[in-house]
Amino acid sequence: MSNNNQLKSKTLLGLFWSFTELVSKQGIQLLVQIVLARLLLPEHFGLIGMITIFIAISAIFVQSGLDQALIREKNPGTEDYSTVFYFNLVISIVVYIIMYLSAPIIADFFKEPKLVEILRVIMVVVIINAFAVIQRVILIRKVDFKTQTKISIIAGITSGTIAVIMALMGAGVWSLVAQQVTMQSMEAILLIVSNRWVPSFTFNFTLFKQYFNFGYKLLFSGLISTIQKNIYFVIIGKMYPVTQLGYFTNATKLRDVSAQSISQAIQKVTYPVLSRFKDDNKRLSVNYIRLIRCTAFVYFPIITILAAVAPIVIPMLLGELWEPSVPYFQLLCIVGLLYPIQALNLNVLKVKGRTDIVFMLSIIKIIVLFLLLGLIIKINDTIIGIIIAAILMSFIAILLHCYYASKYIEYRMSRQLFHLSKIMVSSSILFIIVNLTRLTIDINSITNLILQVVLGLGAYLLISLLINKWELKNTINLFSKQG
Protein backbone atom coordinates (compact mmCIF):
# COMPACT_ATOMS: atom_id res chain seq x y z
CA MET A 1 0.00 0.00 0.00
CA SER A 2 1.37 3.45 -0.91
CA ASN A 3 2.19 6.07 1.73
CA ASN A 4 -0.76 8.19 0.55
CA ASN A 5 -3.20 5.29 0.88
CA GLN A 6 -1.76 4.32 4.26
CA LEU A 7 -2.16 7.89 5.47
CA LYS A 8 -5.66 8.09 4.08
CA SER A 9 -6.61 4.80 5.72
CA LYS A 10 -5.18 5.90 9.07
CA THR A 11 -6.87 9.30 8.82
CA LEU A 12 -10.26 7.80 7.95
CA LEU A 13 -9.93 5.23 10.73
CA GLY A 14 -8.98 7.98 13.13
CA LEU A 15 -11.90 10.14 11.99
CA PHE A 16 -14.28 7.19 12.27
CA TRP A 17 -13.28 6.38 15.85
CA SER A 18 -13.00 10.03 16.82
CA PHE A 19 -16.48 10.73 15.47
CA THR A 20 -17.72 7.57 17.14
CA GLU A 21 -16.16 8.61 20.43
CA LEU A 22 -17.52 12.15 20.39
CA VAL A 23 -20.91 11.28 18.91
CA SER A 24 -21.41 8.32 21.25
CA LYS A 25 -20.25 10.41 24.20
CA GLN A 26 -22.50 13.30 23.22
CA GLY A 27 -25.24 10.85 22.21
CA ILE A 28 -25.21 9.20 25.62
CA GLN A 29 -25.17 12.63 27.25
CA LEU A 30 -28.08 13.63 25.02
CA LEU A 31 -30.13 10.63 26.15
CA VAL A 32 -29.27 11.41 29.76
CA GLN A 33 -30.07 15.07 29.19
CA ILE A 34 -33.49 14.16 27.78
CA VAL A 35 -34.27 12.13 30.89
CA LEU A 36 -32.87 14.79 33.24
CA ALA A 37 -34.78 17.54 31.44
CA ARG A 38 -37.97 15.71 32.30
CA LEU A 39 -36.91 15.19 35.93
CA LEU A 40 -35.29 18.56 36.68
CA LEU A 41 -36.26 22.20 36.24
CA PRO A 42 -34.70 24.77 33.86
CA GLU A 43 -33.21 26.63 36.83
CA HIS A 44 -31.15 23.54 37.75
CA PHE A 45 -29.49 23.69 34.32
CA GLY A 46 -29.20 27.46 34.71
CA LEU A 47 -27.12 27.09 37.88
CA ILE A 48 -24.64 24.88 36.01
CA GLY A 49 -24.69 27.34 33.12
CA MET A 50 -23.50 30.11 35.45
CA ILE A 51 -20.27 28.28 36.24
CA THR A 52 -19.66 26.80 32.78
CA ILE A 53 -17.10 29.48 31.93
CA PHE A 54 -15.05 28.74 35.08
CA ILE A 55 -14.94 25.01 34.33
CA ALA A 56 -13.90 25.68 30.74
CA ILE A 57 -11.19 28.21 31.67
CA SER A 58 -9.76 25.85 34.30
CA ALA A 59 -9.53 23.05 31.70
CA ILE A 60 -7.52 25.33 29.40
CA PHE A 61 -5.06 26.09 32.22
CA VAL A 62 -4.53 22.39 32.87
CA GLN A 63 -3.81 21.61 29.21
CA SER A 64 -1.70 24.79 29.03
CA GLY A 65 -1.07 24.36 25.31
CA LEU A 66 1.70 21.88 26.09
CA ASP A 67 -0.46 18.96 24.95
CA GLN A 68 -0.50 20.43 21.44
CA ALA A 69 3.27 20.87 21.60
CA LEU A 70 3.71 17.18 22.47
CA ILE A 71 1.41 16.08 19.63
CA ARG A 72 3.44 18.18 17.21
CA GLU A 73 6.81 16.85 18.46
CA LYS A 74 8.35 14.11 16.28
CA ASN A 75 9.59 11.66 18.94
CA PRO A 76 8.69 12.63 22.52
CA GLY A 77 9.84 10.22 25.22
CA THR A 78 9.00 9.46 28.85
CA GLU A 79 11.00 12.46 30.05
CA ASP A 80 9.00 14.77 27.77
CA TYR A 81 5.68 13.35 28.93
CA SER A 82 6.68 13.37 32.61
CA THR A 83 7.82 16.99 32.49
CA VAL A 84 4.51 18.15 31.04
CA PHE A 85 2.52 15.88 33.39
CA TYR A 86 4.03 17.35 36.57
CA PHE A 87 3.55 20.89 35.32
CA ASN A 88 -0.11 20.18 34.50
CA LEU A 89 -0.70 18.59 37.91
CA VAL A 90 0.77 21.52 39.84
CA ILE A 91 -1.22 24.00 37.75
CA SER A 92 -4.45 22.05 38.33
CA ILE A 93 -3.97 22.14 42.11
CA VAL A 94 -3.26 25.89 42.04
CA VAL A 95 -6.33 26.52 39.86
CA TYR A 96 -8.55 24.49 42.20
CA ILE A 97 -7.35 26.43 45.26
CA ILE A 98 -8.03 29.73 43.49
CA MET A 99 -11.53 28.63 42.46
CA TYR A 100 -12.25 27.25 45.95
CA LEU A 101 -11.39 30.61 47.53
CA SER A 102 -13.22 32.56 44.79
CA ALA A 103 -16.48 30.60 45.07
CA PRO A 104 -18.21 33.06 47.48
CA ILE A 105 -17.30 36.03 45.22
CA ILE A 106 -18.71 34.24 42.14
CA ALA A 107 -21.89 33.29 44.01
CA ASP A 108 -22.33 36.90 45.14
CA PHE A 109 -21.86 38.14 41.55
CA PHE A 110 -24.75 35.98 40.33
CA LYS A 111 -26.69 36.40 43.60
CA GLU A 112 -26.98 32.60 43.90
CA PRO A 113 -25.64 31.34 47.30
CA LYS A 114 -25.96 27.71 46.14
CA LEU A 115 -23.07 28.24 43.75
CA VAL A 116 -20.48 28.23 46.55
CA GLU A 117 -20.75 24.52 47.33
CA ILE A 118 -21.56 23.57 43.73
CA LEU A 119 -18.43 25.27 42.43
CA ARG A 120 -16.17 23.83 45.12
CA VAL A 121 -17.32 20.29 44.38
CA ILE A 122 -17.48 20.40 40.58
CA MET A 123 -14.06 22.03 40.21
CA VAL A 124 -12.45 18.83 41.51
CA VAL A 125 -12.62 17.74 37.85
CA VAL A 126 -9.73 20.14 37.18
CA ILE A 127 -7.33 18.01 39.22
CA ILE A 128 -8.83 14.80 37.86
CA ASN A 129 -8.28 15.97 34.26
CA ALA A 130 -4.59 16.61 34.96
CA PHE A 131 -4.12 12.85 35.23
CA ALA A 132 -5.76 12.27 31.83
CA VAL A 133 -4.05 14.86 29.60
CA ILE A 134 -0.85 12.92 28.81
CA GLN A 135 -2.78 9.67 28.45
CA ARG A 136 -4.91 11.29 25.73
CA VAL A 137 -1.86 12.82 24.02
CA ILE A 138 -0.22 9.40 23.69
CA LEU A 139 -3.35 7.91 22.13
CA ILE A 140 -3.86 10.89 19.80
CA ARG A 141 -0.28 10.62 18.56
CA LYS A 142 -1.00 6.98 17.70
CA VAL A 143 -4.26 8.09 16.01
CA ASP A 144 -5.82 5.55 18.39
CA PHE A 145 -9.32 6.85 18.95
CA LYS A 146 -10.82 3.39 19.30
CA THR A 147 -9.58 3.10 22.88
CA GLN A 148 -10.87 6.58 23.71
CA THR A 149 -14.24 5.67 22.22
CA LYS A 150 -14.66 2.65 24.48
CA ILE A 151 -13.62 4.68 27.52
CA SER A 152 -16.02 7.52 26.69
CA ILE A 153 -18.95 5.13 26.25
CA ILE A 154 -18.31 3.39 29.58
CA ALA A 155 -17.81 6.70 31.41
CA GLY A 156 -20.88 8.25 29.77
CA ILE A 157 -23.19 5.37 30.66
CA THR A 158 -21.91 5.16 34.24
CA SER A 159 -22.10 8.89 34.97
CA GLY A 160 -25.46 9.20 33.24
CA THR A 161 -26.94 6.35 35.26
CA ILE A 162 -25.75 7.91 38.52
CA ALA A 163 -27.16 11.32 37.51
CA VAL A 164 -30.59 9.89 36.64
CA ILE A 165 -30.78 7.90 39.88
CA MET A 166 -29.88 11.00 41.89
CA ALA A 167 -32.48 13.07 40.00
CA LEU A 168 -35.15 10.46 40.76
CA MET A 169 -34.15 10.70 44.43
CA GLY A 170 -34.72 14.46 44.36
CA ALA A 171 -31.09 15.60 44.31
CA GLY A 172 -31.85 18.42 41.88
CA VAL A 173 -28.80 20.29 40.59
CA TRP A 174 -26.46 17.91 42.42
CA SER A 175 -27.36 15.17 39.95
CA LEU A 176 -25.79 17.36 37.22
CA VAL A 177 -22.72 17.94 39.39
CA ALA A 178 -22.35 14.21 40.05
CA GLN A 179 -22.65 13.49 36.33
CA GLN A 180 -19.64 15.68 35.46
CA VAL A 181 -17.43 14.57 38.35
CA THR A 182 -18.17 10.88 37.77
CA MET A 183 -17.58 11.11 34.02
CA GLN A 184 -14.19 12.81 34.35
CA SER A 185 -13.13 10.41 37.10
CA MET A 186 -14.08 7.33 35.10
CA GLU A 187 -12.33 8.60 31.97
CA ALA A 188 -9.12 9.37 33.85
CA ILE A 189 -9.05 5.98 35.59
CA LEU A 190 -9.81 4.01 32.41
CA LEU A 191 -7.23 5.96 30.38
CA ILE A 192 -4.55 5.18 32.95
CA VAL A 193 -5.51 1.49 33.08
CA SER A 194 -5.73 1.16 29.28
CA ASN A 195 -2.63 3.15 28.37
CA ARG A 196 -0.49 1.94 31.27
CA TRP A 197 1.78 4.96 31.08
CA VAL A 198 3.19 6.20 34.38
CA PRO A 199 5.40 9.27 34.80
CA SER A 200 9.04 8.93 35.75
CA PHE A 201 10.46 11.00 38.59
CA THR A 202 11.99 13.56 36.25
CA PHE A 203 11.34 17.16 35.34
CA ASN A 204 13.53 18.56 32.58
CA PHE A 205 13.55 22.37 32.65
CA THR A 206 15.13 22.54 29.18
CA LEU A 207 12.35 20.43 27.69
CA PHE A 208 9.74 22.37 29.64
CA LYS A 209 11.06 25.65 28.26
CA GLN A 210 10.98 24.24 24.73
CA TYR A 211 7.36 23.09 25.01
CA PHE A 212 6.25 26.16 26.92
CA ASN A 213 7.68 28.48 24.27
CA PHE A 214 5.39 26.78 21.76
CA GLY A 215 2.43 26.19 24.09
CA TYR A 216 2.06 29.41 26.07
CA LYS A 217 0.63 31.28 23.09
CA LEU A 218 -1.89 28.47 22.61
CA LEU A 219 -2.65 28.68 26.34
CA PHE A 220 -3.45 32.38 26.17
CA SER A 221 -5.31 32.08 22.87
CA GLY A 222 -7.26 29.15 24.34
CA LEU A 223 -8.17 31.22 27.39
CA ILE A 224 -9.35 34.09 25.23
CA SER A 225 -11.30 31.75 22.92
CA THR A 226 -12.91 30.04 25.92
CA ILE A 227 -14.00 33.37 27.34
CA GLN A 228 -15.33 34.33 23.91
CA LYS A 229 -17.39 31.12 23.63
CA ASN A 230 -18.69 31.16 27.20
CA ILE A 231 -19.15 34.84 28.02
CA TYR A 232 -22.78 34.51 26.94
CA PHE A 233 -23.52 32.33 29.98
CA VAL A 234 -22.13 35.04 32.27
CA ILE A 235 -24.07 37.86 30.59
CA ILE A 236 -27.36 35.94 30.48
CA GLY A 237 -26.88 34.64 34.03
CA LYS A 238 -26.29 38.19 35.28
CA MET A 239 -29.01 39.96 33.24
CA TYR A 240 -31.84 37.43 33.13
CA PRO A 241 -33.61 34.97 35.48
CA VAL A 242 -31.87 31.63 36.04
CA THR A 243 -34.73 29.87 34.21
CA GLN A 244 -33.89 31.73 30.98
CA LEU A 245 -30.26 30.75 31.36
CA GLY A 246 -31.48 27.16 31.79
CA TYR A 247 -33.21 27.33 28.38
CA PHE A 248 -30.06 28.77 26.81
CA THR A 249 -27.79 26.21 28.51
CA ASN A 250 -29.83 23.25 27.31
CA ALA A 251 -30.07 24.69 23.79
CA THR A 252 -26.28 25.05 23.74
CA LYS A 253 -25.78 21.47 24.92
CA LEU A 254 -28.12 20.17 22.23
CA ARG A 255 -26.29 22.17 19.57
CA ASP A 256 -22.94 20.89 20.82
CA VAL A 257 -23.99 17.27 20.31
CA SER A 258 -23.39 17.90 16.61
CA ALA A 259 -21.36 21.10 16.21
CA GLN A 260 -18.77 20.49 18.91
CA SER A 261 -18.58 16.73 18.32
CA ILE A 262 -17.72 17.08 14.65
CA SER A 263 -15.48 20.11 15.15
CA GLN A 264 -13.46 18.47 17.93
CA ALA A 265 -13.20 15.18 16.05
CA ILE A 266 -11.87 16.90 12.94
CA GLN A 267 -9.43 19.04 14.92
CA LYS A 268 -8.10 16.13 16.99
CA VAL A 269 -7.50 13.86 13.99
CA THR A 270 -6.34 16.35 11.36
CA TYR A 271 -3.81 18.15 13.56
CA PRO A 272 -1.43 15.18 14.01
CA VAL A 273 -2.04 14.10 10.39
CA LEU A 274 -1.41 17.54 8.86
CA SER A 275 1.62 17.96 11.14
CA ARG A 276 3.35 15.28 9.06
CA PHE A 277 3.30 17.63 6.07
CA LYS A 278 4.50 20.74 7.87
CA ASP A 279 7.65 20.78 5.70
CA ASP A 280 5.88 19.79 2.46
CA ASN A 281 3.63 22.69 1.55
CA LYS A 282 2.22 21.09 -1.60
CA ARG A 283 0.98 17.93 0.13
CA LEU A 284 -0.22 19.98 3.08
CA SER A 285 -2.24 22.18 0.72
CA VAL A 286 -3.79 19.26 -1.19
CA ASN A 287 -4.90 17.47 1.98
CA TYR A 288 -6.07 20.68 3.64
CA ILE A 289 -8.23 21.78 0.68
CA ARG A 290 -9.83 18.37 0.45
CA LEU A 291 -10.59 18.34 4.18
CA ILE A 292 -12.09 21.84 4.14
CA ARG A 293 -14.43 21.23 1.23
CA CYS A 294 -15.51 17.71 2.18
CA THR A 295 -16.03 18.67 5.83
CA ALA A 296 -18.30 21.57 4.86
CA PHE A 297 -20.18 19.39 2.37
CA VAL A 298 -21.04 16.80 5.05
CA TYR A 299 -21.37 19.05 8.08
CA PHE A 300 -23.42 22.00 6.79
CA PRO A 301 -26.53 19.93 5.90
CA ILE A 302 -26.37 18.08 9.24
CA ILE A 303 -26.45 21.24 11.34
CA THR A 304 -29.04 22.78 8.98
CA ILE A 305 -31.43 19.84 9.35
CA LEU A 306 -31.09 19.94 13.13
CA ALA A 307 -32.04 23.61 13.15
CA ALA A 308 -34.96 23.03 10.79
CA VAL A 309 -36.54 20.11 12.71
CA ALA A 310 -36.06 21.70 16.17
CA PRO A 311 -39.70 22.89 16.53
CA ILE A 312 -40.82 19.25 16.40
CA VAL A 313 -37.86 17.47 17.99
CA ILE A 314 -37.17 19.56 21.12
CA PRO A 315 -40.74 19.50 22.57
CA MET A 316 -40.99 15.82 21.58
CA LEU A 317 -37.76 14.86 23.36
CA LEU A 318 -37.58 17.24 26.31
CA GLY A 319 -41.25 18.05 26.85
CA GLU A 320 -43.37 21.15 26.29
CA LEU A 321 -41.64 22.87 29.23
CA TRP A 322 -38.55 23.33 27.03
CA GLU A 323 -40.29 24.83 23.98
CA PRO A 324 -38.91 28.34 24.73
CA SER A 325 -35.41 26.99 23.99
CA VAL A 326 -36.27 26.24 20.32
CA PRO A 327 -35.39 29.67 18.85
CA TYR A 328 -32.21 29.74 20.93
CA PHE A 329 -31.20 26.36 19.55
CA GLN A 330 -31.90 27.34 15.94
CA LEU A 331 -29.82 30.50 16.16
CA LEU A 332 -27.02 28.69 18.01
CA CYS A 333 -26.86 26.23 15.11
CA ILE A 334 -25.96 29.17 12.85
CA VAL A 335 -23.24 30.13 15.34
CA GLY A 336 -21.85 26.59 15.20
CA LEU A 337 -22.10 26.27 11.41
CA LEU A 338 -18.50 27.34 10.81
CA TYR A 339 -16.85 25.75 13.88
CA PRO A 340 -15.16 22.86 11.99
CA ILE A 341 -13.90 25.18 9.23
CA GLN A 342 -12.49 27.60 11.81
CA ALA A 343 -10.77 24.66 13.52
CA LEU A 344 -9.15 23.46 10.28
CA ASN A 345 -7.85 26.93 9.46
CA LEU A 346 -6.33 27.25 12.92
CA ASN A 347 -4.77 23.80 12.58
CA VAL A 348 -2.80 25.02 9.55
CA LEU A 349 -1.37 27.89 11.58
CA LYS A 350 -0.46 25.51 14.43
CA VAL A 351 1.14 23.03 12.04
CA LYS A 352 3.24 25.87 10.59
CA GLY A 353 4.27 26.84 14.13
CA ARG A 354 2.52 30.23 13.94
CA THR A 355 0.99 30.13 17.40
CA ASP A 356 1.71 33.86 17.60
CA ILE A 357 -0.91 34.43 14.90
CA VAL A 358 -3.37 32.12 16.69
CA PHE A 359 -2.85 34.22 19.83
CA MET A 360 -3.21 37.49 17.92
CA LEU A 361 -6.45 36.28 16.29
CA SER A 362 -7.86 35.40 19.72
CA ILE A 363 -7.20 38.94 20.94
CA ILE A 364 -8.75 40.50 17.84
CA LYS A 365 -11.84 38.29 18.06
CA ILE A 366 -12.58 38.97 21.73
CA ILE A 367 -12.21 42.74 21.21
CA VAL A 368 -14.59 42.60 18.25
CA LEU A 369 -17.01 40.42 20.24
CA PHE A 370 -17.22 42.85 23.16
CA LEU A 371 -17.78 45.72 20.75
CA LEU A 372 -20.57 43.74 19.05
CA LEU A 373 -22.17 42.77 22.36
CA GLY A 374 -22.08 46.37 23.58
CA LEU A 375 -23.74 47.56 20.37
CA ILE A 376 -26.31 44.76 20.11
CA ILE A 377 -27.37 44.95 23.77
CA LYS A 378 -28.03 48.69 23.37
CA ILE A 379 -30.22 48.00 20.33
CA ASN A 380 -31.85 44.75 21.46
CA ASP A 381 -31.18 43.70 25.07
CA THR A 382 -32.70 40.24 24.73
CA ILE A 383 -31.15 36.78 24.69
CA ILE A 384 -31.94 36.63 20.95
CA GLY A 385 -29.94 39.83 20.50
CA ILE A 386 -26.98 38.33 22.35
CA ILE A 387 -27.05 35.24 20.11
CA ILE A 388 -27.18 37.46 17.00
CA ALA A 389 -23.94 39.05 18.20
CA ALA A 390 -22.47 35.52 18.41
CA ILE A 391 -23.59 34.80 14.83
CA LEU A 392 -21.92 37.95 13.52
CA MET A 393 -18.78 37.05 15.45
CA SER A 394 -18.69 33.57 13.93
CA PHE A 395 -18.69 34.96 10.38
CA ILE A 396 -16.09 37.59 11.23
CA ALA A 397 -13.92 34.83 12.72
CA ILE A 398 -13.99 32.73 9.54
CA LEU A 399 -12.87 35.74 7.50
CA LEU A 400 -9.93 36.27 9.83
CA HIS A 401 -9.01 32.57 9.91
CA CYS A 402 -9.21 32.19 6.13
CA TYR A 403 -7.12 35.29 5.52
CA TYR A 404 -4.21 34.25 7.72
CA ALA A 405 -4.31 30.53 6.84
CA SER A 406 -4.16 31.42 3.13
CA LYS A 407 -0.76 33.02 3.71
CA TYR A 408 0.73 29.62 4.58
CA ILE A 409 -1.23 27.39 2.23
CA GLU A 410 -1.92 27.24 -1.51
CA TYR A 411 -5.61 28.04 -1.08
CA ARG A 412 -6.59 31.65 -1.60
CA MET A 413 -9.09 33.17 0.79
CA SER A 414 -11.44 34.12 -2.07
CA ARG A 415 -11.49 30.51 -3.34
CA GLN A 416 -12.21 29.06 0.09
CA LEU A 417 -15.05 31.50 0.72
CA PHE A 418 -16.48 30.80 -2.75
CA HIS A 419 -16.49 27.04 -2.13
CA LEU A 420 -18.06 27.48 1.31
CA SER A 421 -20.71 29.87 0.00
CA LYS A 422 -21.90 27.33 -2.60
CA ILE A 423 -22.45 24.73 0.11
CA MET A 424 -24.21 27.34 2.27
CA VAL A 425 -26.61 28.09 -0.61
CA SER A 426 -27.40 24.36 -0.95
CA SER A 427 -27.94 24.09 2.81
CA SER A 428 -30.21 27.15 2.85
CA ILE A 429 -32.44 25.57 0.20
CA LEU A 430 -32.49 22.41 2.32
CA PHE A 431 -33.65 24.49 5.32
CA ILE A 432 -36.45 26.09 3.30
CA ILE A 433 -37.70 22.74 1.97
CA VAL A 434 -37.69 21.13 5.42
CA ASN A 435 -39.69 24.02 6.89
CA LEU A 436 -42.17 24.07 4.00
CA THR A 437 -42.73 20.34 4.49
CA ARG A 438 -43.37 20.85 8.21
CA LEU A 439 -45.80 23.74 7.67
CA THR A 440 -47.74 22.47 4.65
CA ILE A 441 -48.12 18.71 5.15
CA ASP A 442 -50.54 17.84 7.96
CA ILE A 443 -49.54 14.39 9.23
CA ASN A 444 -48.38 13.04 12.57
CA SER A 445 -45.12 14.43 13.96
CA ILE A 446 -42.91 11.35 13.47
CA THR A 447 -43.96 10.81 9.84
CA ASN A 448 -43.61 14.52 9.13
CA LEU A 449 -40.15 14.51 10.67
CA ILE A 450 -38.98 11.59 8.52
CA LEU A 451 -40.46 13.22 5.40
CA GLN A 452 -38.71 16.50 6.20
CA VAL A 453 -35.31 14.84 6.47
CA VAL A 454 -35.76 12.70 3.33
CA LEU A 455 -36.99 15.58 1.15
CA GLY A 456 -34.40 17.97 2.55
CA LEU A 457 -31.44 15.65 1.96
CA GLY A 458 -32.78 14.65 -1.45
CA ALA A 459 -32.95 18.30 -2.49
CA TYR A 460 -29.46 18.92 -1.11
CA LEU A 461 -27.96 16.07 -3.16
CA LEU A 462 -29.77 17.17 -6.34
CA ILE A 463 -28.52 20.74 -5.95
CA SER A 464 -25.03 19.43 -5.21
CA LEU A 465 -25.03 17.60 -8.56
CA LEU A 466 -25.33 21.04 -10.13
CA ILE A 467 -23.11 23.30 -8.02
CA ASN A 468 -21.11 21.06 -5.65
CA LYS A 469 -19.93 18.27 -7.97
CA TRP A 470 -16.33 18.39 -6.76
CA GLU A 471 -17.36 18.11 -3.10
CA LEU A 472 -19.80 15.27 -3.81
CA LYS A 473 -17.26 13.30 -5.85
CA ASN A 474 -14.37 13.78 -3.44
CA THR A 475 -16.46 13.03 -0.37
CA ILE A 476 -17.45 9.71 -1.96
CA ASN A 477 -13.83 9.06 -2.96
CA LEU A 478 -12.60 9.95 0.52
CA PHE A 479 -14.59 7.05 1.93
CA SER A 480 -13.81 4.60 -0.86
CA LYS A 481 -10.80 2.43 -1.47
CA GLN A 482 -10.21 4.04 -4.83
CA GLY A 483 -9.91 7.61 -3.50
TrEMBL record:
Keyword Transmembrane belongs to the record: yes
One Pfam family in the UniProt entry: Polysacc_synt_3
Compartment list: Cell membrane
CDD domains according to UniProt: MATE_tuaB_like (cd13127)
Keywords: Cell membrane, Membrane, Transmembrane, Transmembrane helix
Organism the protein comes from: Virgibacillus siamensis
Main location: membrane
Membrane topology: Multi-pass membrane protein
Name of the protein in question: Lipopolysaccharide biosynthesis protein
Transmembrane segments: 12-32, 44-62, 83-106, 118-139, 151-176, 291-314, 326-345, 357-377, 383-405, 417-437, 449-467
Similarity remark: Belongs to the polysaccharide synthase family.
Signal peptide segment: none
